[in-house]
Amino acid sequence: MPATIRVGTASWTDHEPFYPPEYDKAAMKARRIEYYARYFNMTEVDATFYRLMPAHNFELWAERTPDDFVFDVKAYGELTWHHREDDGTPITPSADTFAKFSEMLQPMREAGKLRALLFQFPPWFTFAPERLEYLGTVRELLPDDLLAIEFRHRSWLEGEHAEELRTALEDHQLAYCAVDEPQIGSGSVPPVVLLTDPRFSMVRFHGRNARTWYGKGLSSSRDRFDYLYSQAELEPWADRVKRIAERLDDGGEVHVVANNNARNYAVVNALDMQQLLGQAVGGGHQAPAGVVEVRRERDQRALAPAPASDASE
């Protein structure tokens, strides 16, 4: 029996236009997860990358979602070597921070709704033996959780490094996170699939906006992921995801996460993926008007004839 395929977005708090107007009120913003869960059965908590949060948050999110809903959680930035001292020296992740990160997740674990913890390493985290060893440290300090590993530098998949990486991930039962992103320079990773944990696999979609991928001075990180996939671009991935599911153990899961979080593009493309995978689109709920409009405009552009070229000399 193939593994379960779950589709959702990275974060649920924005995605405009998606939520009805009443969810813009201050008292209702905290309940957006309930509306989101009508359409998807998983999401990724990204706020944990920026700060450690009260355990009560995870308890509330678990309470406000259906029994079959699950969460992936992005690792705190210190744990993925994003944090630096004032002089630029990298801050070595501490066992104490690992413990605090793990403790805040406990209510979600107890509710049976915690799935993978995503460790997304930065572009400057390039391949090196000591960094390969750090992956083992991550497993040692989080011994019982599903862990997914994503890289932002292609050195991890070049030459002999790819096989060394595969071996390390398999030895520590860490799931490799495949990505779809612009293929420009060393700070992007090719769309390679490695099955390194028979229980779990993850694919994240960052868009293909080459112009903003290395952008500096962007008004928001969402500008970097300002890209709306066509269904034609997603269709090959749907086939790959199905094959991944067939190769995982019974009871395993594949998570397909749309991280192209400009406007409501992630929601649109997550619904596209549900359709391409043969799932009930939006859990059988009618898509909101803003989502329908974006899909209609995109599909109309795809059908429009290309402008005629001027062949005159």
Task: Give the gist of this structure.
With 313 residues, the chain is α/β, with parallel strands linked by helices.
Walk me through what this model shows:
Helix content is 34%, strand content 14%. It is of the alpha/beta class. It has one domain (4-303): Alpha-Beta Barrel (TIM Barrel). An 8-stranded parallel beta sheet has the order 1-8-7-6-5-4-3-2. Helix 6 (129-141) links the parallel strand 4 (114-120) and strand 5. Helix 9 (231-247) crosses helix 10 (265-276). The longest helix has 17 residues, at 231-247. It starts with a strand and ends in a 10-residue tail after the last helix. The model has no long low-confidence stretch (mean pLDDT 95).
Tag the structure with descriptive keywords.
single chain; 313 residues; alpha/beta; TIM Barrel; 11 helices; 34% helix
Could you describe the largest sheet, including whether it forms a barrel? Answer: 8 strands, parallel
- Percent strand equals 5-15%
Q: For the record, give the distance between the C-alpha atoms at the N and C termini, rounded to a whole number.
A: 62 Å
Looking at the structure, the CATH topology is: TIM Barrel
Q: Can you tell me the residue ranges where pLDDT is under 50 for at least 5 consecutive residues?
A: none
What is the N-to-C order of secondary-structure elements (H for helix, E for strand)?
Answer: EHHEHEHHEHEHEEHHEHH
Discrete helix count: 11
* Count of β-strands: 8
The coarse overall form would be: globular
Which value, in Å, is the CA radius of gyration?
20 Å
* Residue-averaged pLDDT: 95
State the fourth-level CATH superfamily: Protein of unknown function UPF0759
Helix content: 25-40%
Backbone structural class = alpha/beta
The number of domains: 1
Q: Main sheet: which strands, in order across?
A: 1-8-7-6-5-4-3-2
CATH class: Alpha Beta
CATH architecture: Alpha-Beta Barrel
